[in-house]
Amino acid sequence: MSMSPVAAEHPWLGASGDALVEAGLAEARRLGVGVEIYLAASRSTQVRVQEGKVESFTVADSRGAGVRVFRDGRIGVASTEVTEPGALREAVAEAAAITEWLEPMAGQDLPDITGELPQLDLSSASLRRVSVEDRIARVLELDALAREADPRVKTVVGASWGDVAAHMRIVSSSGLSRAWSLDTAWAAVSPLVADGNQTKNGRKVVAARDFAAFVPARMAREAVDDGLAQLGATEIPSGRYPVVFAAEAWADMLGVFAGLFSGKAAEEGKSLLRGREGELLAAPCLTIVDDPLIPEAMASRPCDDEGLPSRAHDLIREGRLGGLLHNVATAARAGVRPTGHAARASYKGGLGVGTSNLVVAPGSETSAGLRAGASVIEVRDVTGLHAGANAISGDFSLQAHGLWHREGHAPVPIHLFTVSGNFVDMLAQVEALGASTEVLPSGIITPEVRIATLSVAGT
Amino acid sequence: MPTTTAWQPALDRNTVRDVLAEAVSCGAGFAELFLEDTRSRRIALIDQRIKDVSSAHAFGVGLRIVRGHRATYGFTSDTSRPSLMALARALATSDPGAGQVVPAPFTVPAIDLGGDADWDAAARVDLLRRADRAARARDARIAQVEASIEENTQRVLVANTEGVWVTEARPYARMFIQAIAAEGGSQQVASRSPGRAEGATFLLGLDVEALAEDAAEAAAVMLAADHCPAGRMPVIIDKGFGGVIFHEACGHLLETTSVAPGASIFAGRLGEEIAHPAVTAIDDGTLVGEWGSIGHDDEGMPTQRTVLIREGRLEAYLADRIGSERVGVPRSGSGRRQSYRFAPASRMRNTFIAPGDASLEELIADVPYGLYARRMGGGSVVPGTGDFNFSVREAFIIRDGRLAEPVRGATLLGNGADILKRISRVGKDLELAAGMCGSISGSIPVNVGQPPLRVDEITVGGRS
Fold it and tell me: Which whole number is the average pLDDT over A70-81?
C-alpha cells in the first residue's frame, strides 16, 4: 500500500474510516456477497473576487462512500454521504437488494486485484503551507493586476482560486486495500476588454500542485493579452483551409473525443474506434499516450478507481491505434487485459472507463513553420464543445476564434466562424506538430497541431 | 403510493438557532442554514439489458454568512452539533466585522413532507424494455438503444436569522431515451428526455412508445442527411427545447449574477425595448409539477412568476438576496442551488417565450429559403458579449415555404441582444422541455420553452 505523507491527516484514512469500512464489510459477510467500498473525502477552499473585493469565500468538508456489491455476475451500486457506520451497512444492504433487478454479465465478479502501486507523490507541501489569507491575497492581486494591465480592460468578470486536498480509499472483501491522496489548486482570471467597437473575453487558467506556479503578474498579462488579441476581429470567407490548433484548443478537442478510446463505449456500440485496434487510422506523425504517472500533471493517479496500479498506455503510436482503455469487467468481455483505466465520476454511481493525462508527442515544426502558407487559420479557442461536438458520431461543428495568417500580411484576428469535420477523419489529416508542448489544466499535454484541411464556415 | 416513514429535518430548532447565532457572532448581518437530504435512484438499460441500477443518498448542511454584498460559505456532511458549531465559528472569524444581529425566532409552519415511497423496480424495467422495443421496431438501422430513468426526492430545510424556517420536499422524475442509427461507417444519435417535478406518477403515465419511435425516426432520418450549408438565412426554431437559445443567450444575462458586475449586455436597461414587440418572456417557478418549479427558493422565499420581457420591453431581472441588494431590484424567489455544496445564486426556473398566434405551417410557408430547426442541441454563450453558438440536432432546409431535405451539423451563431430583435413572429403552440442548467450554484433542473418562432436572419454555421 502506498501512502503519501498527508494520508494520515484525514480522519477517513484513519480510525473513523476504518469503522465505516468495517461496518460495510461486516454487512457484506452477513449477506454472503462480495463488496468494494470506495471512500472519498476532501477539504477545499474557493475564493471569488470581483471589483477588487472578495465576493465569496467557501470552505468545504466533503465526504462520501460508494459501495459496489457483487452477486452472481451482477453489480449493485449505492452511495451515501451520511458519515456513520450504520449508513454504510444500509448502503451495502441497498446495493445487495438492487442486484435482484440486474441481468448477469461476464466479467462482473469481485475482481482480485494485486500488484504494488508505483511511487507517485501527488501531495503538495507547498500548497498545504499556504494560509487562507495568502490564498485570498493572491486572487486579489490577480484581479487588480488584470484591471490595471491595459486601459482597454473594461472589467474583470471574475478572478478565482480553488484548492482541494482529496483522499481516496478502496477496500474490498477480497482483501484489497488502497489509499492515496491528491492535492490540486487552480486559479483563473477573465478580463473583459473593449475598444469601442468590440468587447472580448480574455482568459487564463492555471492548475498546479506548486503554489509558486501561480504568478499573478504573468497570469493577468496573459489573460489580458488573450482578450486584446481578439479585438478588431473580422469575419472570414467560408472555405477549406489548413488549420493550426493552439495547444489549448487542441486539448479541448482531445478531451471531448477522448471517450472514443473507451472500451466501455466500444462495447456499447458508441465508439467509432470499436474493432479497429492496430489499424493505421491517424497520420504517422501522431502519437498519443495515456500516462497517469506524471507528477506535475493534473489527471495523474497511482492507481485507477478499481485499485489497479497505473501505467502508461499507447492510444495511438505513429498513427496506429493501440488497444482501447478498459476496466476489469470490460476487459474480460473484450478478451483483453485490463489497462488500469477504471474511472468513477465520484463515489456516486457505477464504474466506467476514463482517460488520465493524454500526452501528444511533440513534432519538430517551429511556431512559424506551422503557420506558413498562402492562407492558414489558427484556432486559438473553440466554444460550445458540449453541443457542437458529438462523441458518438465523431462529428464536430464548433464556434472558434483565432488568427488568419496570409503570406506577406500581418496576422488578422478572426471570430464568429465554425470549424467542422469528423474527429477520426481529422486524425488522418494531421500534417505537423510543434516542437514544444504545453501542460494544460485538464491534464492534457500537447504541442500545437496543424491539420491539412478543415471546413471553415464564416460569412 | 404507500408512505413508510415521515421525514423530519435532522436538526432541531435549538441547534439551528445556536449555529446561526454563532455564525453572526462576529458581526455579520445575516446567516442562513441549508440542510439537504436527497434520495436518488437510477435504472438504465443498454444492449437490451438492465445494466445499471443505483441508489444514492446525499446529505449535508451548508452555512452562509452575508456581510454587505459578500458571502462566506461552508458545508459539511458531518451534521453533529460540534461539527456545525465549529463550521459556524470558522466562517464567522474568517470575516469579522462590527455590529451584532440577534437571530429572530423561527416561524415554523406544519408541512407534510411525505416519506420514501416504495420503489417498484418491475414497473420501471417494463418502461425501459418498452422503449427499447419500440425504438428498434421503428427502423431496422437502429443499432443501439439506451434508456434510463432517474428519480430523486430532495428534501430541504432553509432557516435564517430573519426567522425563516421553510421545509420542502421536491420529487423529480425523468426518463431518457437515446437511439443510435448506424449505416455504413456513419452513426447518428437522437434522444428524448421528458421530466417533471411530480415523481413517479409522471413516469407511469408516459407514452414511451411514442417517445422512443420519435427518437428512432429522428436518428434514422439524420443518417441520410447531408451537411448543412452555411450562410445567413431565416430560421424557424420549433417549440420546446428551441427555448434553449433564449435561456442561454438572454436568460443567463438577466440573472443578477451577471447584471450586478456589469458583465451583462442587459445591465442597466430595465424599461428599455430590448426585443421585438412580438416577444414576451417569462420565468415562472409556480407552474405545478413542471420540472423547474419549486415551492420556495433555496433562500426560503416563496417562488414567483416573473415577467422578464413584456412585448419587447425589459421588465425584470432574476434576483437572489445578494443580487437584489447589489442591483437594487426585488428578489424574485429564484435563489437556487444544486445542493448543500453550493451557496444560492439567481437562477432560472421554467423560462419560456409566451405564445403568439401563428401555426408552425404558417411560419414555414412564409420562408422562401431557410432552415427549420426541429430539435436544438445545447450551446454556449460568452457572458460579457452575448455571442452564442448552438448546435441543431435535427434540421431541414426550407424551400419555397415547404420542408425539403434533412441536414446535419448545423449550428446557429449569433448574439443574444441581436436575436431578440429578429424574432419577428411567434407561434401559438407553447411547449416546455426539461433540462439541467449548470452555473455558479451548480446544476439544477429547469425548463426551457417556446412556441415555434421565426428569426428573420441568423448565421447558420455548417460545412461549406
Answer: 96
